[in-house]
Amino acid sequence: SRSINLAVIPGDGIGQEVVSQGLKVLRAVLPQDVKLETREYDLGARRWHRTGEILPDAELESLKGHDAILLGAIGDPSVPPGVLERGLLLKLRFAFDHYVNLRPSKLFPQTATPLAGRPDIDFVVVREGTEGPYTGNGGSLRTGTPAEVATEVSVNTAYGVERVVRDAYERAKARPRKKLTLVHKNNVLVHAGHMWKKIFDKVGEEYPEVTTDYLHVDAATIFFVTQPERFDVIVTDNLFGDILTDLAAAVTGGIGLAASGNINPTGAFPSMFEPVHGSAPDIAGQGKADPTATVLSVALLLRHLGYETEAARVEEAVAADLTERAGAAARTTDEIGDALAVRVAN
Amino acid sequence: SRSINLAVIPGDGIGQEVVSQGLKVLRAVLPQDVKLETREYDLGARRWHRTGEILPDAELESLKGHDAILLGAIGDPSVPPGVLERGLLLKLRFAFDHYVNLRPSKLFPQTATPLAGRPDIDFVVVREGTEGPYTGNGGSLRTGTPAEVATEVSVNTAYGVERVVRDAYERAKARPRKKLTLVHKNNVLVHAGHMWKKIFDKVGEEYPEVTTDYLHVDAATIFFVTQPERFDVIVTDNLFGDILTDLAAAVTGGIGLAASGNINPTGAFPSMFEPVHGSAPDIAGQGKADPTATVLSVALLLRHLGYETEAARVEEAVAADLTERAGAAARTTDEIGDALAVRVAN
Ligand SMILES: CC(C)[C@H](C(=O)O)[C@@H](O)C(=O)O
Ligand SMILES: CC(C)[C@H](C(=O)O)[C@@H](O)C(=O)O
């Protein structure tokens, strides 16, 4: 009989609330014969305040034993910026070699968008997850003095770029439009940019059926708001991917709907699924958080574990629910989770 | 009697066409007693193809003698990415210590925007121009092999950050809303980010009348499309400023309208004014380019040289012209330049 051994990291702020709904929908959609085991990990701001611990080795080790991780949100204004992001969230992405940070963007028919003309938006960003300016390289000299120098080093390897570019080609090949756009800034960041472009072109020779395209990151932001329908699959570096996917979320109904998967395609380590949004401490505990991004992240989790039918059912449930939302009274976090759970169970 | 000794670098693609219109409007708006001398510098792709030269020392030296520089656009697909950008455009910004890269964004009443609801947009981005990931630090090891490592180093100094932050506070203080937002990514780029934030807070103590705010760059892109009216003055690093100002241009009518000034506030070197757009080789030589961004850059140039009345007259002429454009037949580059020249002369 089949089973899923899931690690759950609710984290901070609205994390707990949205993760509960994600689990509710997951339980409702899974076939009877699949045994779901979950173990909750108490990590984040409260734990840090209480014990000073961020991610103890024993817990990192224990997380490795799971089939996947569902994460809510990490971060709180009471913790200095970077402590939990670098020490917990990025630590997990790096330790578990989540080199494909997968972020789909789709504008559902009834969903509000700030864009006039409601363009057709349906693309996926493959964001590199283990290199670039996120490596934590760099430092500060004469810190706090008028003579301070602070550096941040973007580290890029052919090894790291090739594997994520190849993954993006595979995804593009599997989609009807078969189009892949590389986004970088190779007219300024010439060392990293040239390497990305060279590898992108070289791997592309193996995918003659995929149409390719290159855009500088600044130009890409323009097209995100003027012509988002031009995009199918985008592959880009860790920092550009961070920026672009928030913008992508904004034009497709907001970060309340944006899902993500931190994927290790080799299966050597568990992949981690999380909404793109943060912990939103201002609305935490009030039942106001939209759990949809977490529920859509659960769909990515299901697909990753081979439950394609169930993943599609979750996505259809969300699409149907979003259609009903237009003009309807606002619902609580729990009510949205309940409605989605009912839909997927049918 | 007064005089302006202007260097003109038309550059590539549509550069020549838009610069001609900028000069036409400049001549029309200047008082009779101001003597305008211009010297054109042949720099860019054609020169590079012809002679292999990008920016010879003698020309760099000669450029120093001018009161200001008007630049059209640099870059052509026939030149490898980075050669002209790094060797000419960025070389000028760095050599002339253009540490304030000023980029105003305003949505004029009749101008098309991709944003539904037409928010009130009127902010200015103060982009640091001489540091960050643009320094050209970094390199590549085992280039072209599967073991390649490519790095890009963002270099940030307290000296460089403080002066641009101070400039931004001064600009915020002089505006009715007196609001300044720092944009960075201090939860990931902790070394540079912490330094920026610390200096931003410290300098802020001298400006109690300015309201301040901090946003991560990813979140900032969301607000650019959902709530751009919240911004007044933004100060940010070189790369984030590059990305954000293209997005800002996109939501305020496109890069056909986006002006910029690369300013050395000390006056030690000439400041340089240029449209944010590129050389657009696909429409070059066809009279299709919109010269408005260049004309608005001329307004920034006038203001920088102390011709405030004339700067305002150019901006009013553009506003009036934009109002008439809505629904009217498209005009050529030349016709738009003529119309603006007539308006400012009145
Ligand atoms: C919280 C932060 C470290 C994170 C990132 O920058 O990757 C977030 O913005 C995201 O996009 O998942
Ligand atoms: C052409 C390029 C080097 C330049 C930059 O990145 O600064 C341009 O995008 C700009 O914004 O002026």
Describe the structure.
The structure is a homodimer of 346-residue chains. In chain A, a hairpin with a 7-residue loop joins strand 11 (259-263) and strand 12 (271-275). The mean pLDDT of chain A is 97. Chain A has two domains: 1-99 and 261-346, 3-Layer(aba) Sandwich (Isopropylmalate Dehydrogenase), CATH 3.40.718; 113-252, Isopropylmalate Dehydrogenase. The first copy, chain A, has helices spanning 15-29, 45-51, 57-63, 83-95, 158-173, 190-204, 217-226, 238-251, 292-304, 308-325, 333-345; strands at 3-11, 35-40, 68-73, 100-106, 122-128, 138-141, 149-157, 179-184, 211-216, 233-236, 259-263, 271-275. By secondary structure, chain A is an alpha/beta fold. The first copy, chain A, contains eleven helices and twelve strands. The first copy, chain A, is globular and about 50 Å long. In chain A, helix 1 (15-29) packs parallel to helix 11 (333-345). In chain A, 41% of the residues lie in helices and 21% in strands. In chain A, the strands form two sheets. The first copy, chain A, has a ten-stranded mixed beta sheet, sandwiched between helices. Chain A has a two-stranded antiparallel sheet with strand order 6-7. The structure holds 3-isopropylmalic acid (2 copies). One 3-isopropylmalic acid sits between chains A (85, 89-90, 242, 276) and B (187-188, 218).
How does the SSE layout of this entry go?
Two copies of one chain form a homodimer.
Chain A (H helix, E strand, L loop, with lengths): L2 E9 L3 H15 L5 E6 L4 H7 L5 H7 L4 E6 L9 H13 L4 E7 L15 E7 L9 E4 L7 E9 H16 L5 E6 L5 H15 L6 E6 H10 L6 E4 L1 H14 L7 E5 L7 E5 L16 H13 L3 H18 L7 H13 L1
Parallel strand pairs in A: 1-2, 1-3, 3-12, 5-10, 8-9, 8-10
Antiparallel strand pairs in A: 4-5, 4-11, 6-7, 11-12
Helix pairs in contact in A: 1-9, 1-11, 5-6, 7-8, 9-10, 10-11
